[in-house]
Amino acid sequence: MGNYHFYHALEIRYADIDAQGHVNNAKYLTYMEQARMAYFLHLGMWDGASFMDIGTILAQTTVNYLAPIRLMQPVRAGVRVSRLGNKSLTMAYCLEDTQTGQTLATGESVIVAYDYRHHTSIPLPEAWRQAITTFETH
């Protein structure tokens, strides 16, 4: 999978499966969101308590579906920050089968630093920038 220092294990639930017998396409975004929040927690960018204090908002996201995901399949999500801007960052994702290493999907999202109390974008906090840079370059 390469270039990912952070992985988050995913649970494929019965409710995630559609009539075709594989994970519904919309669930992939949920899996990437779960992995993103776990990444933020891991780096200390969010304490998991208040969404008002996380200070991010999703601006754009893409998913590339490469292979179906099945019920109870062991899957993990690799997450990394691929770009740091002034007010936003880009995150890359890779969903893979943990037993075979097969890449099942890839994706990307643009996350904007956001002040929910004042309803405006803000510069990326320097503490986030430092935490991400230190983590991603180790």
What is this entry, summarized?
The chain is α+β, with helices and mostly antiparallel strands and 138 residues long.
Which short descriptors sum up this protein?
24% helix, Thiol Ester Dehydrase, Chain A, alpha+beta, globular, 6-stranded antiparallel β-sheet
Characterization of this structure:
- The longest helix is centred in the N-terminal third of the chain and has 18 residues, at 25-42.
- Strands 1, 2, 3, 4, 5 and 6 form a six-stranded antiparallel beta sheet that branches.
- It contains three helices and six strands.
- The protein has a single domain, classed as Hotdog Thioesterase (Thiol Ester Dehydrase, Chain A, Roll), CATH 3.10.129.
- The model has no long low-confidence stretch (mean pLDDT 94).
- The chain is α+β, with helices and mostly antiparallel strands.
- The protein has helices spanning 25-42, 51-54, 126-136; strands at residues 6-10, 56-65, 75-84, 88-97, 103-115, 120-121.
- It starts with 5 loop residues before the first strand and ends with a helix.
